[in-house]
Write a structure and sequence with these properties.
Distance between the termini of chain B: 44 Å
Order of helices and strands of chain A: HHHHHHHHH
Largest interface: A-B, 32 and 30 residues
Oligomer: heterodimer
Order of helices and strands of chain B: HHHHHH
Shape of chain A: globular
Radius of gyration of chain A: 17 Å
Largest sheet of chain A: none
Shape of chain B: globular
Helix content of chain A: over 70%
Distance between the termini of chain A: 24 Å
Structural class of chain A: mainly alpha
Structural class of chain B: mainly alpha
Strand content of chain B: under 5%
Number of domains of chain A: 1
Number of helices of chain A: 9
Number of domains of chain B: 1
Chain lengths: ~220, ~240
């Protein structure tokens, strides 16, 4: 399973390195989102800085929709989904691999975006360990839900509109937990975020487990 | 034939029950002291509606699980899950509306970010997504399987959402809404009316779900037979030409 996961993750990341879709499209999209938030809330830093954590995570959530959509548009073209199914790879491995690839891309995006938030909103990136841990746990949760729903919606003609509707409400606890953990860290009391970290970790564990179990039946679809 | 007769009785009982709840709730039961005029009467419909919504989602979850389990896989469970979730969404909408009607005079706002309210609102969009997914055409088996998985994910999310929103609110301001804190003593005729409301709405749920379920079965059958009929017609056309 782990070997298969590495293979699939390697494949997806190689495709990304060569096509640069996430880098050239998703990252600029996220940057545009935080710029637009700035316009919507006005230039006042006393408004922007306290909202920085929430705005950052909304941008990540929207980018995650794009990243998972991209991850499955790779599998729709040229019937690669069927090849993937026929390749004899463990479905759980495929799930973990695709999730890992999205996680890597999202973590890079979050690194870029946090610099953007610090510069544009004047947020002080304190409590580094909690920030990083929240990013890790939240991203694992988001990517695993995203990949499961991506597989559910992939191959459907309405996938572009359906995926966000399916994904965003389920991701609500991650948005809450990650925002609160970041809030605590940014306001200088990172220890207050530890409880939220455990919520994020629990969410990640539950949805990775669900993904591992249901991905086999899902791949057989369509 | 017998089944539709039972169904008719259930429907009739639901109708009579709801009518009786309305009559008792509006005209017979007393107005509770300390509540804005007549507002307490929402008590006879709002909690039963919320109960039916959760019952419906529980049923959808259970039938989805039964569908996913290879030994009990049966398209009927898929239809039941869809029917139940659909009724659940309707009742969640009603719960939100009646809740807002309660909130405006009681707390002065149509909406408040209370854990229960927020969870219900998220549930509403979550299951709207599930119904949208169900409506996407495809191989019946593939549709059933992906719907069942979506129902599973949605249902697992409910306690996580509630827990996290509860925590989030309790950090912001300690006094979350206390639904029992008003020392409302439900007694006598009020308690009976409330109980009747629960029974009547549960019957209405059963009736609506059974009809939706039956309709889904008929639609599946019509699709199958429609194909056979169309084929037969084309074939007989060919014969005429020959």
């Amino acid at each position: 399973m782990w070997h298969d996961a590495l293979l699939v993750a390697g494949k997806d990341l190689r495709i990304e390195l060569r096509s640069r879709v996430a880098l050239n499209q998703v990252v600029p999209f996220a940057a545009a989102v935080i710029l637009l938030f700035g316009l919507a809330l006005g230039p006042d830093r006393s408004v922007l800085a306290p909202a920085a954590a929430g705005l950052f995570w909304i941008a990540v959530l929207l980018s995650c929709v794009l990243a998972t959509q991209r991850s499955f548009s790779l599998e729709v073209a040229d019937g690669t989904r069927d090849s993937l199914r026929l390749s004899g790879l463990d479905p759980a491995g495929i799930f973990l691999g695709k999730t890992a690839a999205v996680i890597v891309q999202l973590l890079v995006l979050e690194a870029v975006l946090s610099v953007g938030v610090a510069i544009l909103y004047g947020a002080r990136l304190g409590g580094g360990a909690v920030l990083v841990a929240a990013c890790l746990a939240a991203t694992v949760g988001l990517a695993s839900v995203g990949i499961v729903y991506g597989a559910v919606a992939s191959g459907l003609r309405v996938r572009e509109t359906l995926l966000p509707l399916l994904f965003l409400p389920v991701a609500a606890p991650v948005l809450l937990g990650a925002t609160k953990a970041w809030d605590e860290a940014l306001s200088g009391s990172p220890s207050g975020g530890l409880g939220w970290l455990s919520l994020l970790a629990a969410f990640a564990v539950v949805y990775v487990a669900i993904g591992v179990v249901v991905f086999g039946p899902l791949l057989e679809d369509s | 034939m017998r089944r539709s007769k039972t169904l008719r009785v259930v429907g009739l009982l639901a109708l009579v029950g709801i009518a009786a709840t309305v009559w008792l709730g509006l005209f017979v039961t007393p107005n509770a002291v300390g509540f804005p005029d007549g507002l307490v009467r929402l008590l006879y419909i709002h909690p039963p509606m919320a109960w039916v919504a959760f019952l419906a989602y529980g049923m959808a979850f259970l039938s989805s699980l039964l569908y996913l389990w290879p030994r009990t896989r049966d398209p009927r469970f898929d239809r039941l899950a869809g029917a139940s979730a659909e009724v659940g969404v309707v009742f969640t909408g009603l719960t939100l509306v009646t809740g807002s009607l309660w909130g405006r005079p009681t707390w002065g706002v149509w909406w408040t970010w209370d854990p229960l309210l927020t969870t219900t609102a998220l549930l509403f969009v979550l299951y709207l997504g599930y119904l949208a997914l169900r409506r996407v055409p495809g191989e019946p088996e593939a549709v059933a399987r992906r719907s069942a998985i979506a129902a599973l994910i949605a249902f697992v999310d409910v306690p996580v959402v509630y827990f996290s929103v509860d925590w989030w609110r309790s950090l912001h301001q300690p006094q979350t809404l206390n639904f029992t804190g008003r020392h409302l003593f439900v007694h006598g005729i009020m308690a009976w009316t409330m109980l009747l409301g629960f029974v009547a709405f549960t019957l209405a749920y059963a009736w609506l779900t059974a009809h939706r379920y039956r309709l889904a079965g008929l639609a599946a059958k019509a699709e199958e037979e429609g194909l056979a009929v169309a084929l037969h017609e084309r074939r007989s056309e060919a014969r005429v030409l020959v």
